[in-house]
Amino acid sequence: MKTLLLIAAVLYCTITLAQAPESFFDKDSKRYGFKDKSGKVIAPAQFKAIQRFSEGLAAVSLDDKWGYIDEKGVMQITPQFDVANAFSEGLASVGKPGDKKNVYGAVMIYGYIDKTGKLLIDYKFDIANNFKNGYAIVASTDMYNDNSLYGAINKKGELVIPMEYSVMNNFAEGYFQAAKGDIKNYKGKYGFIDLNNKTVVPFMYDDAMWFIEGLASVKKGDKWGFIDNKNNTVIPFIYDCAAYFEKGRAEVCKGTATFFINKKGVKVK
Q1: Cα–Cα distance, 195 to 175 (Å, whole number)
Q2: Both 40 and 107 in a single domain?
Q3: Are residues 100 and 52 both part of a single domain?
Q4: What's the pTM?
Q5: Are the C-beta atoms of residues 78 and 67 closer than 8 Å to each other?
Q6: Using one digit for the tens of pLDDT, what is the confidence trace for 249-260?
């Protein structure tokens, strides 16, 4: 499962980066810069750290503060943040030291800015993920960052799902994948909830992915299968790993064999 997800993530990042300016590293200054597709330097090697371009902007670290440059190398948001993440759906999470402290020092708290750098959602979350389909997963943590409770906000910063789940993933096809219990020690269970925090698929699975094309891959014991949003088993629990459906196919594995199946569970090319 992790291998399949990693491959998908690498392919996505490769395609995204191929369409944006490329970074380069200067060994003498030990700093990063950017070149356009022709190889022309659009931003000299001056950044201590950089992130990928997303929605036309890339987060860059200058003098230990983060800001954002555009694809022409122009600084659009002045470096001012202690932590900065990629833009998604017009917003980016940024962080500063909060009042909480752990054994490493002050714990970061996060809010969200727009593409002008204006803070639209105040600093109040210990974890703040990217927006997807209008919602972002956020969390509160304990002083050791070991026990996080997740919920979801809308673009007004309103908490639409309370922070009470040990795992949550992005909103897709009307549902959040979530988990309750001690997932880290394999004592929790996964299920699905809607925007009203109503359980639509019981918390009964040992792992789960999100709904894509009407089906979700879920794990029961040591085997994976596929369910619909009524918790009906559509494809039986016979696989050692299973990804999500895309254009009517899902990648699965049995033992050392990896292959694709259709929505009837039939092996296809």
Answers
A1: 7
A2: no
A3: no
A4: 0.84
A5: yes
A6: 999 999 999 999
